[in-house]
Amino acid sequence: MKGFYRFVGSRRFILPLIIGPFVYLAWIFYSTQPREPENMPEVAEATDAEEFDINLFTVTDEEFNQVTGEGKEKTQTESVVNIHERLTDDTGNIAIAYFIWVLCLSPLKVLLRRNKLVSALNRHRRTIGLACFFYAMLHLVIYLTNGLQTLLDEITRLYIAAGLSAFAILLVMALTSNNWTQRRIGGRKWKKLHRIVYIAIPILIYHRAFAGKVSVETIRETFIWFSPMLILQGLRIWKQIQEQKAKA
Amino acid sequence: MLINKKQTWSLPESATTPENDYLARRKFIKKAGILSAGTAISTGLAQGATAGFPEKPNLNKDFVVKDRKPTPYKWITGYNNFYEFTTDKYDVRHLANKEWKTEPWTLKIGGHVEKPLTLDVNDLCKQMGIEMRVYRFRCVEAWSMVVPWDGFPLSKLIKKVQPTSKAKYVKFTTFMDEKTAPGFKRYDYYDWPYTEGLRIDEANNELTFLAVGVYGRPIPNQNGAPIRLVVPWKYGFKSIKSLVRIDFTEDQPKTLWNSAGPNEYGFYSNVNPEVPHPRWSQATERVIGESALSPRIPTLKFNGYEEQVANIYKGMDLVKHF
Predict the structure, then answer these.
(1) Which of residues 121-140 of B touch A (CB under 8 A)?
(2) The 3-state secondary structure of B194-216, one letter per residue
(3) Backbone angles phi, psi at B256, to 5 degrees
(4) Model ipTM?
(5) What DSSP character marks residue B79?
(6) Is the entire prediction scored with pTM above 0.90?
């Protein structure tokens, strides 16, 4: 059992969990290139021609059966059609997953002080936090490829502003997450500074819940995602209040 | 308002797909589907091929998008918003082809009309004739496709049922069957069934189309089988799928998205790059099928159909009536 905890606390355990999603995203990106349909004649040219080739606008019965069939015919599933949307959603969700994970660890440590698994996992708090920042950065970069016009149009929207401010918080935390700055700032001050993460919780909940078209669905989903962390944080506060009362 | 004038776009009956071919095709495709499931009898296939889709369905060249390539079939049929099934655009295809049957299908046309109609969609196709048009399709979610539809203009049907002077709006209603589509229960906060509406002059516009096919084949379930509305200058959600009723009304009909979010989805919902959605920009759009790195393209006013529809909205404040 000791070996297991040592493994959970080691890089061999955490690195695949951090790099895995990136490999998945890279695979989506490369497997969907190039997207330009090949051998497609220019429409204007084709329709102006006297002998118009209707095949440009018709499909075969086989193709029809492939998209309307069930079971055996189900083979030609398109998993990614709107690549940009898929990458935006996925990077955002991955970043939020790490965010929730890392914020579950600290209350768990308070609640289960002697649990070896919890202590092993707590060794990875910085790594997971940095991973969260990394995927959030990818998310932002992919969003920015929508163009400057879109950014200027949307920056006043509350959920975009929320996303950007959450990113700013993560940026501050990521930049100070190394031994050198930690020492320079001093442990107590550093801890205080990193409490800004709690501001990011409501901001990210808002950002996640209102980013899509389907508000009720996404709100429901968001709360299901965040609930374990919110419950653990609540329990931690409750426990700390109890302990203070006992002291007094 | 009686609409009897001969429209410039109207095709002679002879130009459209022969009805028998169209109907035979629907049947053939069913047959072919069964055959491919395992019992391949060569004679059956040969028979079907002759009775299948006509080799050259008639393309109405006045209604073809020329500056963009048509979106490949697999993406048109694999990325669908159809909340009656699921909000997952990739999963609609599977759920819509499971238990839901779209044949036979009856369409009822009523309200303020002289000649109300209740008939099977196949019979309707027979009466109306089928032509092919290639339209831009712009979703309110800021992505777009170019779709070759098969069908007939709605105005042709309006002419047939003869709306009375009281008919100021047209209300469209889709199916509601909780047994075959899981969305009704799952998303019970929407005001089912899905309804949409057009002003009568919008409905009579030469562009407004009732589609029964995509890419020269019957319209797949996920795209709104067996008959759907296509209003190319409005956001996609106005183009209601799987119609069961068309009613001519005096008052502006209630529509599902307008009820769900009155400040986000207006009754008109014309494609307009200058009027952003409250939560996102509508100035540009992402072309489905292009690389993640390709830039968005600018969205055109009325989705590029300004010439045909701008006169409908003359003098109207399009920001207020979004």
Answers:
(1) 132, 134, 140
(2) CEEEEEHHHHCCCCCEEEEEECC
(3) -60, -50
(4) 0.77
(5) S
(6) no
